[in-house]
Specification:
Number of domains: 2
Number of strands: 14
Strand order of the largest sheet: 3-2-1-4-5-6
Largest sheet: 6 strands, parallel
Strand content: 15-25%
Structural class: alpha/beta
Bound molecules: 1,4-dihydronicotinamide adenine dinucleotide
Length: 325
């Protein structure tokens, strides 16, 4: 059956890197035809039409139609996957409250439209920043959709952590298992090497503690800024790649003996307040994310997880005070 995939911010740079991969079958697999729905703001609809022309010109066998709209009700109608990429970026002089409010004006109505029009099996991935809190806003506007269907992306951070560690140890990325990003998709995130394994042995024991603390953690956490500095634009192809990875694994499952990272609603595990959309070590089974249980958290990790989770609590309290959730 053809699956409708809605992408917001479709005319943006992540959209441009993402849509072709969805249409080629990399999101849901080579057996699943897709119909793309592109949601944009009115000023960007024309650009989205241009991208749609290029999608046509690829003659992707799995692509069974493209719709373009500036109306969330139409764009999410019958959608089974929603990739919420379009967001209001922080501009000069903008306070956090202004940023959260502007995004509330986007993710609230989109959550409502998902609630009213999406398919029963809708899965939502929020990419647009501040991703975790935008996901919370959309979720709270969609009371009829199971809360667990709203997730935010930390897979790019996860992939960055894999790549940094692989380079340090001079091993292929595929030899690294059980990497975890904890907390918020922000500079406070905590990439955890105390449970990651390289060649079956704990990664933290194979690197110097100074490197882990002073190089690895800040390099992963600030990689987005380093890309902007180098490229003059924020991560786009790598962000699109991570979105593909996230939804692919959510739908198709994570490999045995490994896990990944995703920001999903907390069930209270690891002391993360219930309901907060925070990044955890997760596996996907039967189309559902499950938090990996029973990991021992030492004082070093605890302090860093708490710092990032506290930031999420502050963001949640700020959007609550603004009446956005
Ligand atoms: P961009 O500025 O190139 O594109 C954003 C697009 O969203 C624009 O075409 C804009 O017209 C559209 N848009 C704005 N409001 C909209 C609305 N209400 N409905 C539909 N479309 C709307 O930005 P880019 O580079 O594609 O990044 C998108 C977002 O992804 C940003 O918030 C960025 O911070 C975030 N991001 C998140 C990452 C993550 O790891 N979670 C990684 C990289 C970027």
């Amino acid at each position: 059956m053809t699956v409708k995939v809605t992408v917001t911010g479709a005319a943006g740079q992540i959209g441009y890197a993402l849509l072709f991969r969805v249409a080629s079958g990399q999101l849901l697999g080579a057996d699943t035809p897709v119909k793309l729905s592109l949601l944009e703001i009115p000023q960007a609809v024309k650009a989205a039409e241009g991208t749609a022309m290029e999608l046509d010109d690829c003659a992707f066998p799995l692509l069974r139609g493209i719709e373009i709209s500036d109306d969330p009700a139409k764009a999410f109608d019958g959608a089974s996957v929603a990739l919420l990429v379009g967001a209001r970026p922080r501009t000069k002089g903008m306070e956090r409250g202004d940023l959260l409010e502007a995004n509330g004006g986007i993710f609230g109505p989109q959550g409502k439209a998902i609630n009213e029009h999406a398919a029963d099996d809708i899965r939502v991935l929020v990419v647009g920043n501040p991703a975790n809190t935008n996901a919370l806003i959309a979720q709270s506007a969609a009371p009829d959709v199971p809360a667990e269907r709203f997730t935010a992306m930390t897979r790019l951070d996860h992939n960055r952590a894999l790549s940094q560690l692989a380079a340090k140890l001079n091993v292929p990325v595929a030899e690294i298992k059980k990497m975890t990003i904890w907390g918020n998709h922000s500079a406070t995130q905590y990439p955890d090497l105390f449970h990651a394994e390289v060649g079956g042995k704990i990664a933290a024991e194979q690197v110097e503690q100074e490197w882990l603390r002073d190089t690895f953690i800040p390099t992963v956490a600030k990689r987005g800024a380093a890309i902007i500095e180098a490229r003059g634009a924020s991560s786009a192809a790598s962000a699109a790649n991570a979105a593909i990875d996230h939804v692919h694994d959510w739908v198709n499952g994570t490999p045995e003996g490994d896990w990944t990272s995703a920001a999903i609603p907390s069930d209270g595990s690891y002391g993360v307040p219930e309901g907060l959309i925070s990044s955890f070590p997760v596996v996907s089974r039967n189309g559902r994310w499950e938090i990996v249980q029973g990991l021992e958290i030492d004082a070093f990790s605890r302090e860093r997880i708490d710092a990032s989770v506290n930031e999420l609590v502050e963001e949640r309290d700020a959007v609550r005070a603004l009446g956005l959730i």
